[in-house]
Amino acid sequence: MKFFIDTANLEQIKEAQALGVLDGVTTNPSLMAKEGITGEKNILQHYVDICNNVTGDVSAEVIATDYDSIIKEGEALAKLHAQIVVKVPMIKDGIKAIRYFYDKGIKTNCTLVFSAGQALLAAKAGATYVSPFIGRLEDISSDGLNLIDEIRLIYDNYNFNTQILAASVRHTMHVLDCAKIGADVMTGPLSAIVGLLKHPLTDSGLAKFLEDHKKGN
Ligand code: G3P
């Protein structure tokens, strides 16, 4: 399973990259605003900065919602850097645009996916990634992990190449659950990745090894 970090915070991106387990980055307009990145020029430059600090795919989301504008904005984003993946919302014009980008060889991430039907449509259109939001489904008492399971079944039935990018991952158990189900990618906060490290028996075992080593010297 690939690990993406879901943030526009450059320091956290660098920290995750330094861990040696990072495969890419996802961003969205809310995450950019959270970092205080505003204005078209600054936003575009920030995407380039992110690309220059990681080795994998970097999702950059279009703001446009009509077909012509999505194409224009998506092509401009794709030209910024070879690592850019154009993130397109799951709307009718978005699906049409994903097909256009597919034909042009531009990678896409279909975002705001909340049903298996939407995921099927994204795969039919040729999306590189589909992003089901598991945390937001759980926020409204719906089963986000079951959605990943359903999409996995459908994609495997027909050998779709679209990668399931489990998004809105909030914590470490989500990462493990997505890995068990067979999501291709998960994107979440750095804390969800670092959380995988933790086990009290590791800490106490290491403390004892170091203590015994001191006694022997
Ligand atoms: O980037 C999309 C998704 O991961 C958002 O997550 O936590 O805002 O629901 P969240």
State the main characteristics.
11 helices, 8 strands, TIM Barrel, 217 residues, binds SN-glycerol-3-phosphate, eight-stranded parallel beta barrel, alpha/beta, single chain
Characterize this entry briefly.
The chain has 217 residues and is α/β, with parallel strands linked by helices.
Provide the fold topology.
Elements: E1 2-6, H1 10-19, E2 24-26, H2 29-34, H3 40-51, E3 57-61, H4 67-80, E4 84-89, H5 92-104, E5 108-113, H6 116-125, E6 129-132, H7 134-139, H8 144-158, E7 163-166, H9 172-181, E8 185-188, H10 190-194, H11 200-216
Parallel strand pairs: 1-2, 1-8, 2-3, 3-4, 4-5, 5-6, 6-7, 7-8
Helix pairs in contact: 4-5, 6-8, 8-9
The chain binds SN-glycerol-3-phosphate.
What does this molecule look like?
There is one protein chain. The protein has 217 residues and is of the alpha/beta class. The chain has a single domain, classed as Aldolase class I (TIM Barrel, Alpha-Beta Barrel), CATH 3.20.20. It has eleven helices and eight strands. It has helices at 10-19, 29-34, 40-51, 67-80, 92-104, 116-125, 134-139, 144-158, 172-181, 190-194, 200-216, and strands spanning 2-6, 24-26, 57-61, 84-89, 108-113, 129-132, 163-166, 185-188. The chain has an eight-stranded parallel β-barrel with strand order 1-2-3-4-5-6-7-8, surrounded by six helices. Helix 6 (116-125) packs parallel to helix 8 (144-158) and helix 8 packs parallel to helix 9. The longest helix has 17 residues, at 200-216. Bound molecules: SN-glycerol-3-phosphate. SN-glycerol-3-phosphate (G3P) binds at residues 6, 26, 28, 133, 135-136, 167-168, 170, 187.
